[in-house]
Give the backbone structure.
Amino acid sequence: MKASLAVVALWAEDVPATAHFYRDVIGLPLAGHSGGRPHFQVGETLLVILPGKAAPAEGEDRFPRVAFAVDDLGAAVERLRQHRVALPWGVEGDAHSRWAMFYDPAGNLVELVQFGTTHPGG
């Protein structure tokens, strides 16, 4: 069986504000709207924002709900900063990647990651 990820769902009490964030701050294309649930295209996967309360992380509080791979983390971080998105831990990295984590308007921990980099910072 060959499988791929089809849908990822995040919950938000303020769906319009959260949809605005993913469209205008993160830059995801809106793929549609169904029953008050915006759908964003992320490669072959749909990210759906559902009305409801975002669930807090259990146990490991620094593990994101969703992580997006980006080609240029520096440019993505600059875009976040222009929109006044706080990066609580700044830009982190290891020998294989760099990443930045932040909270969306609903309180979901989100990560942007650039693979194939060999230095932290940003």
Observations:
- Residues 7-52+63-115 form a domain with the 2,3-Dihydroxybiphenyl 1,2-Dioxygenase; domain 1 fold (CATH 3.10.180.10).
- The helical segments are 15-25, 73-82.
- The first strand starts at residue 7 and ends at 12.
